[in-house]
TrEMBL record:
Name of a matching Pfam family: Phos_pyr_kin
Enzyme class: transferase
InterPro entries for this protein: HMP/HMP-P_kinase_dom, PM/HMP-P_kinase-1, Ribokinase-like
Pyridoxamine kinase/Phosphomethylpyrimidine kinase domain ranges (all copies): 11-254
NCBIfam families: HMP-P_kinase (TIGR00097)
E.C. code: 2.7.1.49, 2.7.4.7
Reaction equation(s) it catalyzes: 4-amino-2-methyl-5-(phosphooxymethyl)pyrimidine + ATP = 4-amino-2-methyl-5-(diphosphooxymethyl)pyrimidine + ADP; 4-amino-5-hydroxymethyl-2-methylpyrimidine + ATP = 4-amino-2-methyl-5-(phosphooxymethyl)pyrimidine + ADP + H(+)
Biological or metabolic pathway of the protein: Cofactor biosynthesis; thiamine diphosphate biosynthesis; 4-amino-2-methyl-5-diphosphomethylpyrimidine from 5-amino-1-(5-phospho-D-ribosyl)imidazole: step 3/3; Cofactor biosynthesis; thiamine diphosphate biosynthesis; 4-amino-2-methyl-5-diphosphomethylpyrimidine from 5-amino-1-(5-phospho-D-ribosyl)imidazole: step 2/3
Key words, A-Z: ATP-binding, Kinase, Nucleotide-binding, Thiamine biosynthesis, Transferase
Gene Ontology CC annotations of this record: cytosol
Family label: Belongs to the ThiD family.
Sample GO molecular function, one term: hydroxymethylpyrimidine kinase activity
Official protein name in the record: Hydroxymethylpyrimidine/phosphomethylpyrimidine kinase
Length: 257
């Protein structure tokens, strides 16, 4: 069985973060492992507290996994702060991690800063060059590029700019645009488009986490980047269609529908 590692934050309500990643790994046929960067107290209504894990303990988790087990793909989610980013970048380089999917998590849907704004440029400088695929949504792409993104043309331009930071592929997710939910995949040469129908649900907690984890699972299983993204898109679309009305707020996507 192929093995995928998520390096991300814990979501006590199980809809996003590490918990979503491990469910998405299982649902997509790979063995899941986790390095926890932060523990959040959250539910479907918001994030109420965050405890960042000591960078030395993050480094030890990375070492414990890579020294013992072959890692076929890595997904990176919530990275909180500069020291966490530096620790992860050093670990990925040391172990020559491959099939790395970076989800540049910045602000939760409920408005909580999961990445310290002071660390945004560090994420761009240290983690994007290590990425096989980086998966920004539009607000994240706006932070990375400094651009305002409204049209598909803007998305293409932003994808080109983000590609210059060093990732092999940029998947710019269009879900935040109101008129069109097209995602764009750019490999430095060609733009490919993914369109899926917009699903009428408010239960979308953890969609970004789930998509990036599914891409990592598919890369671990040996799919080429385009196919890994296309399959992950199908998966997240169905997971959103079956989203669960759990809790009083924004419910999670359903991993095993
Ligand atoms: N909590 C953690 C630990 C996350 O990593 C993420 C997203 O990446 C979220 C929350 C965001 O959840 P939401 O989909 O509600 O914005």
């Amino acid at each position: 069985m192929k093995k995928a590692l998520t390096i991300a934050g814990s979501d006590s309500s199980g809809g996003a973060g590490i918990q979503a990643d491990l469910k998405a790994f299982a649902a997509n046929g790979v063995f899941g492992m986790s390095v926890i960067t932060a523990v959040t107290a959250q539910n479907t209504q918001g994030v109420f507290a965050v405890q960042d894990i000591d960078p030395a303990v993050i480094a030890k988790q990375i070492e414990a996994v890579f020294e013992d087990i072959e890692v076929d793909a890595v997904k990176i989610g919530m990275v909180s702060r500069i020291e966490t980013i530096e620790t992860i970048a050093a670990g990925l380089k040391k172990y020559r991690a491959r099939n790395v999917v970076v989800d540049p998590v910045m602000v939760s849907k409920s408005g909580y800063h999961l990445l310290n704004p002071a660390a945004e440029s560090k994420l761009t400088a240290l983690l994007l060059p290590l990425a096989t695929v980086v998966t920004p949504n539009i607000p994240e792409a706006e932070v990375i590029t400094g651009m305002k993104i409204t049209s598909l043309q803007d998305m293409e331009e932003a994808a080109k700019m983000i590609h210059c930071f060093g990732p092999q592929n940029v998947l710019l997710k269009g879900g935040h645009r109101t008129d069109d939910a097209t995602d764009i995949l750019f490999d430095g040469n060609t733009f490919r488009y993914f369109s899926s129908p917009r699903i009428a649900t408010t239960n979308t907690h953890g969609t970004g986490c789930t998509l990036s984890a599914a891409i990592a699972a598919n890369l671990a299983r040996g799919y080429a980047v385009y196919d890994a993204v296309a399959l992950a898109k199908e998966y997240i679309t169905t997971a959103i269609a079956h989203a669960l009305a759990i809790g009083k707020g924004v419910g999670p996507t359903h991993h095993f529908y």
